[in-house]
Amino acid sequence: MSEEAPKYKRILLKISGEALQGDESFGISHPFVDGIANEVKEIYDLGVEIAIVTGGGNFFRGVRAHELGLERASADYMGMLATIINGIALQNALENKGLSTRLVSALHVREVAEPFIRRRSVRHLEKGRIVLFAAATGNPFFTTDTAAALRAIEIKADILLKATKVEGVYSADPNKDKQAIKYDTISYAEILHKDLRVLDSTAVALCKDNNLPIKIFNLTTKGNIRRAITQDTLGTLITTSGR
Questions:
Q1: Within a domain: residue 119?
Q2: What does the DSSP assignment read for 9-71?
Q3: Is residue 3 part of a domain?
Q4: Rounded to whole angstroms, how far apart are CA atoms 198 and 39?
Q5: Which of 106, 151, 183, 217 is deepest in the core (most CB within 10 A)?
Q6: Does residue 192 fall inside a structural domain?
Q7: Cα 82 → chain centroid
Q8: CATH number, domain at 234?
Q9: The domain containing residue 147 runs over which residues?
Q10: Is residue 2 part of a domain?
């Protein structure tokens, strides 16, 4: 297998809402979303089946419920609606590149997205469509990280790729601790034991129970989505053994 050949047939890419805002203080950065669409097209052209889960933190996060005087459940539903907005934006950017997509929502918004049906979503992937999963799991108290893990398992993805603003998993926050060490590989158990919080603990446990590998990598470096599926050395790989 050449270095540029994809190592995975079917992937689920988790993109945070904060990533979609790029350098903006709020909302969506068109240049950044367009850049993501270009990179997704690159891996699509390699023959990879692609599903995407978007976060909603560029508009609203459910964990802000207390400071806004909202019930957590209500705030989480607001966050789910934000992920639908991001899904629509990314869907348009991808279709502008000539790609076929389906926006699939865990909440019923039939005017803009089809409801989640596992077998239908898998069939879309088999037909070469990019599937964008929005509205998380459709349930409050679950993060979009957990939704990404759940959808990845449901569609039998080979790996969950979490695109972030850091190079991978570190022993401490690299923005606060200059002595923080980056892990090339690490186990699910170590992530949970050390409480590293690079991924929601429920998501990590779900991947652990279903032996789904996770790769954490930096989205802000151009070309990294392609590198994440063609190179072993990019980011941090999380597996059962940590090897």
A1: yes
A2: SEEEEEE-HHHHTTTSSSS--HHHHHHHHHHHHHHHTTT-EEEEEE--TTT--GGGHHHHT--
A3: no
A4: 23
A5: 151
A6: yes
A7: 15
A8: 3.40.1160.10
A9: 10-239
A10: no
Which residues does 71 contact at the CB level (< 8 Å), separation at least 6? 65
Q: H/E element holding 162?
A: strand 159-164
Angle between helices 144-154 and 118-126 (to 10 degrees): 70
Copy the structure tokens of residue 161. 């790729």
Residue 61 CA to residue 82 CA, distance in Å, equals 9
Cβ atoms of 148 and 162 within 8 Å: the answer is yes
Burial of 67 (0-12, 13-18, 19+ CB in 10 A): exposed
Residue 195 has which token pair?
């409480």
Decide if 155 contacts 124 (C-beta within 8 A). Answer: no
Contact 202, 143 (CB under 8 A): yes
Could you give the CA distance from residue 169 to residue 175 in angstroms, rounded to a whole number? 12
- Burial level of 14, CB count in 10 A (0-12/13-18/19+)? buried
- Give 103-156 pLDDT, tens digit per residue: 999 999 999 999 999 999 999 999 999 999 999 999 999 999 999 999 999 999
What does the alpha-carbon distance between residue 39 and residue 106 come to, in Å, rounded to a whole number?
A: 26
CA distance 162 to 145: 8
Is the pTM higher than 0.85? The answer reads yes
